[in-house]
Amino acid sequence: MGVPVIELAGVGKSYGPISALRDVSLTVDAGSVTCVLGDNGAGKSTLIKIMSGLHPHSEGTLTVDGTARVFGSPREALDLGIATVYQDLAVAPLMEVWRNFFLGSELTGGRFPFAGLRIKEMRRITDAALRDMGIEIDDIDRPIGTLSGGQRQGVAIARAVHFGARVLILDEPTAALGVKQSGAVLKQIAAARDRGLGVVFITHNPHHAYLVGDHFVVLKLGAAVLDARRAEVTLEELTLQMSGGDELQSLSEELSRPS
Amino acid sequence: MTRSPVRLLARPEVGALVAALAIFAFFLAVAPAFRSTGALFTVLYQASTIGIVAVGVGLLMIGGEFDLSAGVVVTTAGLVNSLFCWWFGVNLWVGALLSLLVCLAIGFLNGWLVMRTGIPSFLITLGTFFVLQGVNLGVTKLVTGSVASANIADIDGFRSLQAVFAGNFGIGGVTVWTTVLFWVLFVAVAAWILHRTRPGNWIYAVGGAPESARAVGVPVVRTKIMLFMSVSFLGWFVGMHTLYRFNTLQAGNGVGNEFIYIIAAVVGGTLLTGGFGNAIGVAFGAFIFGMTNLGIVYAGWDPNWFKAFLGVMLLLAVSVNLYARKWGSR
């Protein structure tokens, strides 16, 4: 494998006196899935914000294709091919599927001030891109808010893939979904990986992570407590780490009734 | 890729169109004086003086913001032009240009303050509303000694400006004010921008989901500031019309119109929380306003009831819109 697309070394972030993330290192390679696991408040959101350009990091280095970067805006990250699909899905619920698909990257024809949208073409491309990722939507003129959570997630992923993302950051894509819809999203993650994208899959579900992951990082209280390749870790270890591990052990002693 | 006919009902302007037709039929039935082309064009004129600013306010509301200063800025626009030129004795075109710059600056300031401070635009523009209301009266009193601006009909440039902003022509015995044509033009441009251009896409997005819009690279701050500036530009246009139609202005005018604009937008199907609506709907909203305003007079009723009627209209239209949208998006 060549140079990783994204490499974080000792990255940290403080909001004033509060340190949200300390000394986290991870790599994102093309065509592989890096899973970031952690409980609520473990620092997952902060890590996403740093990689997607919403907040700059305050310690360590973030390199993209071997060049150190500090992102000032999401646009900068996007321009380097780093696309983020947020937990709240970054969609405008009342807008049509195709308008959401092209939001911020609309196709126009003609010259300012008469640059109109190429609506027919955008509708056609949206439909084709969704089908490519195995997402069937009966009517792309529907407000995107009327789609199911899994479908919306799919639109967001297909969107990122279509606009030439090389890295796809997915923020808890399966958190609010049922079993079947989660399965569909995991298939889309695999489809994106097979197309050569580097995927960062953020989740608190070790089972979902283990189904598609190549590399696992577990965060706890803003620091990495586990960093392993697939071959070096089992689902049981991952689950134990996620469910609290040692803490759970002591909790079980505390809660145990005297016999 | 099929479009269902039921989804038509979810379109923002459908409720307003149905309401407009119903009210039109109602006044045709009860007010004989309403049944003439002349009366129709009087209604259209009345609607245009509200509708021009309302279309800007509608766009702004789709973009998720309010402008409570939109009513008084119309008067500010006229006063800046009138008082400046009267005091310094310069050509009225100079004042008109100065007034345009002042209005754009007010719009920019509204937008910039909202984006910079994060304070809801309702409060920021409530502030500018009061500031402008006070300044309108205070400065007019200082300059002319009364609360009305002086007659400017004899100052250079009056004729040409009147031809541009307050012209009318007769066609088949009916007087047509050019503001009606400008209104149609502004609505057409607004509709085109909303549905057929990138900034239009951005307006829906910054209103419906500003954080999401920012995350996918939409220039949220620029889009919203441009919307505030569009409102004050259209306010300037109507201010020019009022000034050159009546030669003189009452400094206290315009107060209360900000709500008429919002009503027109909401009756036209604009969602109060942003992200939904369209320009044609807002035009229907303004048309309903014009019809009710004059229809009551034509029917020979006491015009004091107008506001009560307007309130009922608003409540009805909002419920119909809500129902239609729910039904259409099932």
Largest sheet of chain B: 2 strands, antiparallel
Uncertain stretches of chain B: none
Q: Give the helix proportion of chain B (percent range).
A: over 70%
Output the CATH topology of chain B: ABC transporter involved in vitamin B12 uptake, BtuC
* Shape label of chain A: globular
CATH class category label of chain B: Mainly Alpha
Number of domains of chain B: 1
| Percentage beta strand of chain B | under 5%
Helix fraction of chain A, binned, reads 25-40%
> Which protein chains make the most extensive interface, counting residues with beta carbons within 8 Å of the other chain's beta carbons?
A-B, 34 and 29 residues
- What's the gyration radius of chain B in Å? 20 Å
Please describe what this structure looks like.
- The complex is a heterodimer of chains A (259) and B (330).
- In chain A, a hairpin with a 2-residue loop joins strand 11 (215-220) and strand 12.
- In chain A, strands 6-9-10-3-11-12 form a 6-stranded mixed beta sheet, sandwiched between helices.
- Chain A has a single domain (6-94, 163-255), classed as P-loop containing nucleotide triphosphate hydrolases (Rossmann fold).
- The longest helix of chain A is centred in the C-terminal third of the chain and has 16 residues, at 179-194.
- Chain A is an alpha/beta fold and 259 residues long.
- The model of chain A has no long low-confidence stretch (mean pLDDT 85).
- Chain A has helices at residues 44-52, 74-79, 97-102, 119-132, 149-162, 179-194, 206-212, 235-242, 246-255, and strands at residues 6-15, 18-28, 33-38, 59-64, 67-69, 82-85, 108-109, 116-117, 167-171, 198-203, 215-220, 223-229.
- Chain B is mainly alpha-helical and 330 residues long.
- Chain B has one domain: ABC transporter involved in vitamin B12 uptake, BtuC, CATH 1.10.3470.
- Helices cover 72% and strands 2% of the residues of chain B.
- Chain B has 13 helices and 2 strands.
- Chain B has helices at residues 12-30, 37-62, 70-88, 92-117, 121-144, 158-165, 178-196, 198-208, 210-215, 220-246, 257-267, 279-298, 306-328; strands at 168-171, 174-177.
- In chain B, strands 1-2 form a two-stranded antiparallel ribbon.
- The longest helix of chain B is centred in the last third of the chain and has 27 residues, at 220-246.
- The radius of gyration of chain B is 20 Å and the shape is globular.
- The mean pLDDT of chain B is 91.
- Chains A and B meet through helix 2, strand 8 and helix 4 of A and helix 7, helix 8 and helix 9 of B.
